[in-house]
Every structure is written in structure tokens, then in C-alpha cells.
Amino acid sequence: MSKMSFTYLSEPDVLEAGLSLSETVELCTESLRQHGLKQIENPPKSGIHPQPDAFLHSMPAWVMEKNVCGIKWVSGFSSNVQKKLPSIVGMIILNSTETGFPTAVLDGTYITAIRTAGVSGVSIKYLARKDSEVLGIVGTGVQGKYNTLCITHYLPSIKKIRYYDAWAPSLESFKAQLQPLLPNVTFEPVATIEEAVRGADVFAGCTGKVTESIFYADWVKPGALVLPVHGGGWEPDVMTKFDKVVVDDWAQISVGMSQYTAHCKAPYAELGEIVCEKKAGRENDQERIINFNYGLAIHDMICGARVVEKAKQKGLGVELELMDLAKPIPLPQV
Ligand SMILES: NC(=O)c1ccc[n+]([C@@H]2O[C@H](COP(=O)([O-])OP(=O)(O)OC[C@H]3O[C@@H](n4cnc5c(N)ncnc54)[C@H](O)[C@@H]3O)[C@@H](O)[C@H]2O)c1
User: Fold this and answer.
1) Taking CB atoms and a 6 Å cutoff, what residues make up the pocket around ligand 1?
2) Which of 61, 187, 242, 321 sits at 20 to 30 Å (Cα–Cα) from 158?
């Protein structure tokens, strides 16, 4: 090996690689199992905030058993949506666990979108009532749509979707894109956030950044599962108001959602503990469960590695040279 090179996959390459939602749910189930077994390294994300509604997060992780490590660098600019631009855009770098050399650089936008919905799919499998009929969605952008597809796939009992968004174009494209894929489901736009939450058996909050309280635990019916995909917007003491609080990673949530964790000593469980059967998931039809999944880089790494594998099988992407290993690093000019 005299040249160090890495695979580069653009967004079209990643899309053509063809990672599906159900494959992603399997991958995220596995990354959460490894999290529950503590066979991962996934420090809390750190970030910078160049705009009041924005973040850039650095997300490294290592999934030991899968021999996968690397980092995602992801931006979230909520106001992009009104400019008809994606609000969440990411890049993933995968590295060799033996030499640390970069092995792949790929678009992380689609992977972020699909793995976030994929984690909701895992939550549905373990925490939702199997006879859930009404899905509530607030925020009908990328996550609103991806979560709807995933939740209805794992809960074919869903008969009605009650949905709300503050921005009309997003609301219109939600029904236009999803109704043809879900012909047996009734799409009911509602006029307020409260109407989308009340009566829902599963509720997913998928808004852009929200700092004030716009969701209230009192609105949530017995037996419901709440998935705050965007974690903000609940009352500060929300974690004291549900029968079970489940999180993806308590250490990360304690840093990123301290507005809630200041009121709660510990969650009922981390989702990975439920996946690897250290703790029970839903135990009866009356429990109100809230599951904060703040987003773990282990999912990006495991899904990113699968995308690279699939892309190589299809001959997608390009190999780019980074350095000539035969030549020692020269001394710099002084
Ligand atoms: N937990 C995770 O792992 C994870 C991963 C990706 C994205 N997210 C979060 O999910 C959220 C949605 O991401 P996206 O890619 O779908 O963004 P998006 O911009 O495509 O969609 C957000 C939608 O929310 C709407 N909205 C914003 N404020 C609202 C309000 N107060 N009431 C009603 N609707 C409102 C917008 O009009 C838009 O349609 C973001 O906050 C993002 O940070 C979380």
C-alpha cells in the first residue's frame, strides 16, 4: 500500500446505494443493542451555533463489534426551510479502526434523515401499543415525512394521521407525497398543535428548533407513545409527567437537554437497555411513555458503513488519493 486513498460518495451515490427504511431499522436496532451492551464509544456531541436557530454538531463514534468508527459533522439551520433549502445537512468520515486512516467520505444528509426515522422505528417496536390507530405529527418536513412512513410501516393499525405545521408549503407537500403511499390512511390537517397531540396513540414532534413550551404532557392520552424527534418545546418538568421516560443516551441528553434533566435524576431506561432485554419496554396499554432520542453517531457509522458496502457493490463513487505513503512527510518551509 503506497498510496492512501478513500472512497468518496456524493448524495446521488448515497441515494443510489439504496439503503431502505426497514434495513435502517435493523441497523439501528443493532447499534442500540451494542449501546445497551456498552460495546461502543459515543461521547456527547459538541457544537457551535453561528445563528440563533442553528447548530453545527461534531459526532464521533466507534461500534466495536462491527469494527466501524468515524465522525459525522452535521448542520441544522431551521430557517433554511423557508428558503426551500434542507435544514439538516451532514458529512460522514469513516476511519480504519487499525490505522485510523480515513476510508470513506460521504454525504450524511440522507443517512441522518433515514437513521433518525429508523430509531423511531425501533421505539415503535418496543414502546408503542400494537393497536395504535391515530398518529399525531407536528412539523411536516423531512422528519415528519420519514417518521410517518416508518411509524405506519411498523404500525399497520394506524388509520388516521392528524398533522400540523406552521408553514403551509410543508403541510401541503406532506399529504401530496404521503397519501399515495398510504392509500388506506385518512390524512386530517388540524388547526392547532394541541389537536395533533390530543387523542394520538403515537405522537412525533418534528419541528425545527423550538425553545418555548408548545407541547404539554396533560394533552397526551393514556397508553400513548411520544417521540420528540426535535427534543425542544416541552415543559421543563416534562420528564416527571410520564409513566416511563426512555432516552437514547442519558449522558448526552444530560448535556444537550439539561432544561429537562435538571428536573429528573435518571430515566426509566436507555433504549439500548430495552433492546438488549436488560429492561422491559411497554408493559401495559395504559402507560404513557416519552422517548427522547437526541441522535447518536453510532447509527451514522453503522449505516454509513453499510452504504459504502452497497455503493461499492454497485460500482458507485470515486477513489480519491489523500497521500503517498512511500514518501515521508517532508519538513515544512520555515
Ligand atoms: N434526534 C435526532 O437524531 C434528529 C436527527 C435529525 C433531525 N432532528 C431534528 O428534527 C427536526 C426536524 O428536522 P427536519 O429535517 O424534518 O427539518 P425540516 O426543516 O425539514 O422540517 C421542520 C418543519 O417544522 C416546521 N416547524 C418549525 N417550527 C414549528 C412550530 N413551532 N410549529 C409547527 N411547525 C413548525 C417547519 O415549518 C418545517 O416544516 C429538527 O429540529 C432537527 O434538528 C433530530
Assistant:
1) 76, 81, 87-88, 112, 116, 138-144, 165-167, 170, 206-210, 214, 229-230, 293-295
2) 242
| C-beta separation of 206 from 143 below 8 A | yes
Q: Which residue's CA is the nearest one to ligand 1's atom 29? A: 207
Read off the pLDDT band of 23 (50, 70, 90): very high
Contact between 196 and 134 under an 8 Å Cβ cutoff? The reply is no
* pLDDT tens readout for residues 302-319: 999 999 999 999 999 999
Q: Where in the chain is the domain with CATH 3.40.50.720?
A: 129-292
- How many whole angstroms from 234 Cα to the centroid of ligand 1? 15
Domain 129-292 = CATH 3.40.50.720 = yes
Chain mean pLDDT for the chain: 97
Q: Dig out the grid coordinates for 223 from the structure.
A: 397508553
All CATH 3.30.1780.10 domain ranges in the chain, comma separated? 3-111+297-324
CB atoms < 10 A from the CB of 250, how many? Answer: 17
Over residues 64-76, the mean pLDDT reads 98
Confidence of residue 1 (pLDDT cuts 50, 70, 90): low
CA of 174 to the centre of ligand 1 (A): 13
Ligand 1 centre and the CA of 286: distance in Å?
29
Which candidate, 144, 123, 141, places its Cα nearest to that of 132?
123
**C-beta separation of 323 from 3 below 8 A:** yes
Residue in 31, 32, 87 to alter for ligand 1 test, most ligand atoms within 8 A of Cβ: 87
Question: Could you report the per-residue pLDDT of 198-227, keeping only the tens digit for each?
Answer: 999 999 999 999 989 999 999 999 999 999
Phi-psi region of 99 (alpha: psi -120 to 50; beta: other; left: phi over 0): alpha
Ligand 1 atom with minimal separation from the 143 CA: 16
* Superfamily of domain 3-111+297-324, CATH level 4: ornithine cyclodeaminase, domain 1 (3.30.1780.10)
Nearest CA owner, ligand 1 atom 18:
141
